[in-house]
Specification:
membrane, transmembrane, CbtB_put, mainly alpha, transmembrane helix, 58 residues, CbtB-domain containing protein
């Protein structure tokens, strides 16, 4: 019974950081990448990041 509880805890501890990284990445690439303000430095940084990752944006 202890083994099952330990494996569940390990599985959960690996899931949360991975899920958080995916959410943060999508926020940066999709959320900030589509901002349209001409003087928006966040948009420019995300836009350059999309190009460097070979992610189509035009």
């Amino acid at each position: 019974m202890k083994t099952l509880a330990a494996s569940t805890a390990i599985s959960t501890s690996k899931f949360l950081p991975g899920f958080s990284a995916i959410v943060l990445g999508l926020t940066v690439v999709l959320g900030l990448g589509f901002l349209q303000d001409a003087n928006n430095y966040l948009h420019n940084a995300a836009h350059d990041g999309r190009h460097s990752a070979a992610f189509p944006c035009h």
